[in-house]
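Thought: the user wants the 3D structure for the chain below. I'll pass the sequence to the structure tool as-is, report back what it returns, then summarize two notable features.
Action: structure_tool
Action Input:
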Amino acid sequence: MDDALALLDGARAEAEAAVAAAADVDALDVVERKWLGKNSPATAVNEAIKTFSADDRPRAGQAVGAYRSAVGEAAGARREALTAAAAATRGPGIDLTLGGHARPRGHLHLVTQIRRELEDIFIGLGYRVAEGPEVEDDWHNFEALNIPPAHPARSMQDTIYVDLGAAEQMMLRTHTSPVQIRTMESQEPPIYVVAPGRTYRNETLDARHSPAFHQMECLAVDRGLTMADLFGTIEAFARRLFDDESVRTRFRSDFFPYTEPSAELAVSCVFCGGDGCRVCSHTGWIELGGCGMVDPQVLAGVGIDPEEWQGFAFGFGLERIAMIRYGINEIRTFFDNDVRFLEQY
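Observation:
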């Protein structure tokens, strides 16, 4: 029994030294398993107690308890010290009760929102969305639309020409009408499409004009189409756009090279109900764009028989729609990338 007690005394000194030498919590775990675990000296002596005499057993049990208490207390104190040192190295802890930082969320640009809303309206009316290249050739941008080289309308549209080394003259499209030509060239009637996209003019940037802006044009080609169909489509579109069944439409004779007859499209002011206000310049009407029946010569130019098929088309600027709806005075605000403006929508 005396040998067992001597073993415990020596093991205790070694265990306390090992605890003090532990460099981190992981090393301390290893020390505790060695000196306090199932293979520790205390466990060995505890199992041998049953071989001791009745008088020696109590003293041996007390020695085992004293060993475990001393080594356990030393390990506990060392663990606290190591944990505190590690926390000091990491710096201040995270207060989970503090509120978090709001992560800014992005959203679609206002023009994109308007475009998608209009696309949904026309899809609901049975149209599909068509797109085309922004760099166009002279045929699709001008000649196929009844705008030959000497036509005065070419001087009205200050075109941005680009040099791509091609044999034919290339330009940034001045409208989305070329998409209509490409659609009629590649698809047999009946045709019902809308063509949204970016367009370009050689204009000075000011409150109402921009060298780059967005348009959406509508084209329908079918048997028996008339101006009445055009007017009905525009009226249905306008009421959906402004969410107002009382919106009225007005058509006044106008001229466009690729439609005949042609008309200027306006809607009753949604802000004053047609009584006259600052937005509509006190006229009671807001101009949206142009419209008309597709010129038979345009249909014939793309291989569609104008005696069998008729068509109508109309178009408008997306920025203008947004300016009318939200009372925005300057087109420049759409392109300034001012987050204070953009996050309002």
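Final Answer: Structure generated. Residues 110-342 form a domain with the BirA Bifunctional Protein; domain 2 fold (CATH 3.30.930.10). Strands lie at 128-129, 135-137, 161-162, 170-172, 191-200, 212-222, 249-256, 259-268, 285-294, 310-317.
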